[in-house]
Write a structure and sequence with these properties.
Blueprint (H helix, E strand, L loop, with lengths): L2 H6 L40 H13 L4 E5 L2 H9 L7 E5 L4 H11 L4 E5 L4 H7 L4 E7 L11 H11 L2 E5 L17 E5 L13 E5 L2 H13 L6 H11 L2 H21 L5 E3 L9 H7 L6 E5 L3 H10 L4 E2 L9 E3 L11 H7 L6 E4 L5 H32 L1
Parallel strand pairs: 2-3, 2-4, 4-5, 5-6, 10-11
Antiparallel strand pairs: 1-7, 6-7, 8-9, 9-12, 11-12
Helix pairs in contact: 2-8, 3-4, 11-13
Length: about 400
């Protein structure tokens, strides 16, 4: 079946009453057959039928064999890192979500080393490898600069070195990119984003084809109690049904918005994989079927960027991305503000960078909103400059 069909038809749905929508098993514990044996389910922290159905669905969509659903994307990444031991090292991409960097820096204080390298340059990652390296972790496209890494080449490098390779696929979803098929050992999702698509669930996922690796992740999920709750699992199942429909519309609209921004005189640079001059465009085309809905751009002036963001009417000022509603943010001061000071200079995005996530609204309305926001921001800037000039003359 095609991905859009798989999104609607749940994997191995089993309901004795024939419900077309799966039930929510909103229970903390389950009755056992005897005092000396356990049934299939005993305690929701360990497993729950609703979450099991979701995990099967996530694995199938990513072309994987096993999945674990977590209470957030960060708890999913935490479970992955817990598989390392003191003395091990992570090679991490140098353009990651701020919360991921914050977590990795915390791990470094617990005896797990972190080396940041540019994953768009294979030689840079190869040079960063040491005998202690156990995990290579990347995003592609990255958040927020939309940098593209060659998943196949990095997977080959990782496996030759005997280390695990994880790809955060939150930016694209399995509708557009499947890292496991390209050689990754793990796929990570902040399921809060495109998988959910409605900004009403916080969730994460880890998918793999390796049973031993899955068992390690599942142990952490159970031991730390980080599994997704039944109700959130049900909501996420509901959101996934429209995943293909949503991302296809968003992808189409995002390209039009990116081209509008490219031609705007106040925009210095646009970052979007769908643009032919985007660095890594050809590699992206070879491993992905779409470009996503996230676009970043710079203006060369942090104050102007802030004014543009605050002048928007349809785009809500909010962190996160991938929802049906369009949002806008300043990553340096919002989603990436949590990057520790020690690594902020090399890893934080530019202060004037604006990130937008294109929703499912009429693209003409979104472009009109951007146009009026730029006009308002530039007018305010000109007024402020005039006032300052008058003040200086008066003095």
């Amino acid at each position: 079946m095609k991905t859009s069909t798989r999104c609607v038809h749940l994997a191995a749905q089993d309901d004795v009453y024939g419900a077309v929508v799966p039930p929510i098993y909103q229970t903390a514990t389950f009755r056992q057959p005897t005092a000396a044996e356990f049934g299939e389910y005993d305690y929701t922290r360990t497993a729950n039928p609703t979450r099991t159905l979701l995990e099967r669905q996530l694995a199938e969509l990513e072309g994987g064999a096993h999945a674990c659903a977590f209470a957030s994307g960060m708890s999913a990444i935490t479970a992955l890192v817990r598989m390392l031991k003191v003395g091990d090292e992570i090679i991490a991409g140098n353009d990651l979500y701020g919360g991921t960097v914050r977590l990795f820096e915390q791990m470094s204080r617990q005896g797990i080393g972190v080396r940041y390298a540019d994953p768009t340059e294979i030689d840079a990652v190869r040079s960063a490898l040491t005998s202690r390296t156990r995990l290579i972790f990347i995003e592609t496209p990255t958040n927020p600069l939309l940098r593209i890494s060659d998943i196949r080449s990095l997977a080959q490098l990782a496996h030759e070195a005997g280390v695990m390779f994880a790809v955060d696929n939150s930016m694209l979803s399995p509708c557009f990119q499947r890292p496991l098929a390209l050689g990754a050992d793990f796929v990570i999702h902040s399921a809060t984003k495109f998988l959910c698509g409605h900004s009403d669930v916080t969730a994460g996922a880890v998918i793999t084809n390796d049973l031993a690796l899955h068992e390690g992740i599942a142990f952490q999920q159970n031991a730390e109690g980080a599994g997704l709750s039944p109700f959130e699992s049900w909501l996420l199942l509901r959101g996934i049904k429209t995943l293909a429909l949503r991302v296809e519309r968003q992808n189409e609209s995002a390209l039009r918005v990116a081209k509008f921004l490219e031609l705007h005189p106040a925009v210095k640079k646009v970052y979007y994989p769908g643009l032919k001059d985007h660095y890594g465009h050809e590699i992206h085309r070879s491993q992905s079927a779409g470009d996503g809905a996230v676009i970043s751009f710079t203006t060369g002036d942090a104050t102007l960027s802030e004014r543009v963001v605050e002048a928007m009417r349809l785009f809500e000022i909010a962190v996160s991305f991938g929802s049906v509603g369009s949002v806008i943010s300043l990553p340096f001061r919002m989603s990436h503000a949590s990057i520790p000071d020690a690594v902020k200079k090399p890893l934080a995005p530019p202060a004037d960078l604006v990130r937008i996530s294109v929703g499912i609204e009429a693209v003409e309305d979104l472009i009109d909103d951007l146009d009026q926001a730029f006009a308002a921001a530039m007018k305010e800037g000109a007024t402020q400059s005039f006032v300052r000039g008058v003040g200086s003359s008066a003095v």
